C-alpha cells in the first residue's frame, strides 16, 4: 500500500472516487489544491486531520502534499503551478530547464502569471513573475511554459548587467535550442524592459557566425572593444582532405592570421590530434596562429587584443589599438 493510499480521506472512499483521486495524484506528483479536495468532497477538517496526523503536509497556501518528506522536482513544479492558479506557466530558469537549455537545479520554481493574479513569491518554493504579454509568450506543453525564445529573453534580462545578458543569450542561441530568428521576432514584438541593445547585438553576432560564448567574448571584448578588424567567422580550411572550420581569420583584410578559440572539446584525444594536424597545415601554408581559451579572454581580453594587434602589425596592419575601459 502506497503512502497516498494510506492517507486516503474517508470522503474519497465513501463516494467511490478512487480512480479520480489516483489520477489526480499521478498527474500532480502527489500534491493537491484545496479547491480540488473540496470538489472531491473532502472537508477542511479532514485536511487538518491529515496534516496533524503527519500523513500530509502543507506546501504553500492552499496546496498540500499527500506524503511527508522532501518534494521531488515534479511535485515542486506541480505545487508552484497550483499555487499560481489556472493561468500559471513555468518561465525563466525553470522553463529553460524543461526545454533542456540549461542544466537542472534544485532551486525555486519560476512561474509567470498575468497581471491581476494574487499569487506572490514564496521563499524556497516559487518565484512569481508577471507579464503584460502573457497571452503571447505561452506555448502548449506539459507542464505549461513560456516559448523557447521568450524563455531565453527572460533568462538574459534577469542578469545583473548588459554584458552578462548578452553572453547568456549568445550561449542559448549557439547551444542549438533557440533559433535566432525567433528571438529577433520576439525582441520586436515584446521589447524587454532592459538590455534591448545588448540582446539585439547577441542575435546579430550569432547571425555573423559566432557559435559559442567564447567566440562572443572574443568578438566583443577583444575585437570590438579594442578597435581591431572584424574577423571572418567559421572559415573553411582543408586538412588531410577534411574540411574544418576556423573560428576567426583575417584573410579578408590581407593578413594570413588564424585565431583559434579552444573550448572543452579540444581536450579530447581525437580533437587534439586534429588540431595538431591543422597547426602543421597552417605552418606549411605560411599562416600565423594564435590560440585562446575561456580563462585567457575572460580574465585578460586586453592582453589577447595586444597579441592579435602585434601579429596584425607584423603583417602590415596600420591601425591603432583602442584602449577599452579595462585597459591599464
Q: Can you describe what's shown?
A:
By secondary structure, the chain is an alpha+beta fold. It folds into three domains: 67 residues, no CATH class; 130 residues, no CATH class; 102 residues, 3-Layer(aba) Sandwich (Endonuclease, Chain A), CATH 3.40.960. It is 46% helix and 17% strand. The chain has a four-stranded mixed beta sheet, with helices on both faces. A three-stranded antiparallel beta sheet has the order 1-3-2, sandwiched between helices. Strands 4-5-6 form a three-stranded mixed beta sheet. Strand 9 and strand 10 form a beta hairpin. The longest helix is centred in the C-terminal third of the chain and has 16 residues. The radius of gyration is 27 Å and the shape is elongated. 35% of the residues are buried.
Key terms:
Endonuclease, Chain A, 328 residues, alpha+beta, single chain, elongated, 3 domains, 4-stranded mixed sheet, 3-stranded antiparallel sheet, 46% helix
The topology string of helices and strands comes to HHHEHHEEHEHEEHEEHHHHHEEEHEHH
Regions with little confidence, pLDDT below 50 for 5+ residues: none
Count of distinct structural domains? 3
Main sheet properties: 4 strands, mixed
Would you report the number of β strands?
Answer: 12
- Widest sheet: strand order? 9-10-11-12
By secondary-structure content and strand pairing, the structural class works out as alpha+beta
User: How many separate helices?
Assistant: 16
Helix content class: 40-55%
Radius of gyration: 27 Å
